[in-house]
Write a structure and sequence with these properties.
Blueprint: E1 5-10, H1 17-28, E2 32-35, E3 42-43, H2 46-55, H3 64-77, E4 80-83, H4 93-100, H5 107-132, E5 139-144, H6 153-157, E6 161-164
Parallel strand pairs: 1-5, 1-6, 2-4, 2-5
Antiparallel strand pairs: 3-4
Helix pairs in contact: 1-3
Amino acid sequence: MDLSLIFIGSTHSFLDDFLKQKEIISVINPEFALSEELEDLKLEEADQFKDILEKKFISDMTSFGEVEKLVKLCFEKKIKLIGIDFHNFGFDENLQRKIKNQKELTKEEEKTLNETIKKREEYHLSKILEYKGKTKKPLVVILGCWHLRKDSLLRKRLKNYKIIAP
């Protein structure tokens, strides 16, 4: 299988996403694993991994528990783990609070949310292309399943990929 990108769809903890991540990463053994949930963090050196494992903090939007197993796996296998999103997914404090508490959004907040999601997808694409150019090995990219829908920017703009989703 000569693929340059393997997307792993994340359910954001509705299922145990890590089981599939571990399986794929162990088979592919990429130089880089890219993760939406790691937001804007880059873990390339041992001390960066040790620091995040000690702090146990990602952001206000991502709990450490959601990524802990992935961080440990990449650390053990010496795979660089790269966040491909904005800090707190680019959401202001008001949107963060409403999203976390599943509160209804106003029309204006919905508009802001949709604009932010579009910027996030463009950023995902730019980071994937950046890291694709840094390695000869396939990239493992972990993103929410929604970002891998049929009409998504990534599926329109990228070729030579496989999507593994629950």
